[in-house]
Design brief:
The chain is α/β, with parallel strands linked by helices and 512 residues long. The protein contains 17 helices and 18 strands. α1 packs across α5.
Amino acid sequence: MMRPIIQLFGQVLAPIAYQFHQALDNPRSMQISVQREICDRLIASEYGKALGIRSVADWQRVPIVDYDALAPWIGDPAQHCKGKQISLTPEPILFYEKTSGSSGAVKWIPYTQSLRRSFSQMFCVWSHDLIVHGPRFSTGKLYACISPQLNASNSNSLQDDLDYLDGWLRWLLRPWLVMPEGLNHLRDPQLFKHQLALALLQAEKLEIISVWSPSFLDVLLKYIQENQELLQAELREKMSGDACGGLRLRLQLLSEDHIPWTQLWSNLKLISCWDSANAADQAKGLKSQFPGVLVQGKGLLATEAPMTIPLIAAQGYVPILDQVFFEFEDDIGSLHGLHELITGKEYTIILSQKGGLYRYRIGDRIRVTHYYRQTPCLEFLGRQQAVSDLVGEKLHEAFVHDALTRINLQGNNFKSLVPVAHPPHYVLLLDAAQQTPEIIAQQLDHVLSESYHYERARSLGQLAPPQVIIYNQISEVLALHRVRTGSIWGGIKHPILATSPMSIELLQELKQ
């Protein structure tokens, strides 16, 4: 049994967890300390010198920025050599990680050793909480997929999901991982799903599944269900002698019309995934498919920084207050410190982290649910206005506007791209068009696929192909629907990108 080793791992993590919990008792003091540490890095950087920042007293002179404002300081990742410095931080850059930008398809986030240590600290606190307060883990076998690389990646980007963590953690965790060698280097989505399905089907002792979007796991389960015979045939080839008795049972389970997932992975105790905002319904779906398994939300975790983590004792998501300096903007533009937040109020996050992002408007909106010890717990509500994010695709209004312009739609006075939750996909609403809906839908899918996260979601099957509905009275139908749901007709706006999923009832009404 691996239980004693898991408990020993928990003891190794205990000092880190203890320091974090101490910080929760005095968030103001900890945030002041983190701000000073980050400001010292800013002062030593070319960016800080250009701003004339000489001490933390100058902090308010640091502009609040988005990625596009920092892009000239980040430089070109393609021309970057590992270990070289950039203008934002005096610390060498280990690699760049790719995510979606606000006005373009891609943005590159520089990673330093200090930023990686922030992710490691977060992981240690989370792991310790699960070992102490979570399910009784006995095998420790873990599948962790953060971002499958389905496109040719920059050589300085992550080559393995464990690259987010410090070296000692990577060394400790590798024996526990269920991860076929070379899986994250596969470029073909079907081959990726196939090889991953084979690996998980053989992982009889699998105890933890960690993914970002719950739709990723849902897509994989559907792939297994739809390819039962092919997977069975390949698994039979791996059987040899009595040692595969467990595999024989799993082959029987795999042959059922509705695969009993909790029997297939009888040791599974935890699924970690997004469960807020647009991912809430998908997470509930996993809970129904895996009764008795803890489906735990990840909290607010982005490529740019770790922001919140779930703590079982807190019954909510606590901020990573010892690694990230937080400022919160309310609806009238006033800024507040972490210790000043009011329960029930909503805010937008502005963060400063240890990798070179200072007063960075990340675009995430939160609500304060309650306080744990002396620290507010934060619920992720979704992206700031003009961002749609069903399964992690992060489509921004500026990008969608540019994409629709490039399709060169003609003869219409109304166009709006609207997300649909079941199944996750997008519908382009038009009042008129010169081309057929099918042709426009193909063009739309092509231009939207220039967004890194959209293309990946489409490749993995997390997003179905987009649809196009052309109806000359579409604006009136939408307006009447909004009036029926409580909107004032004169105040109704139809954005080029809707951020809330369309109801199935309204979609069916438009299709009639």
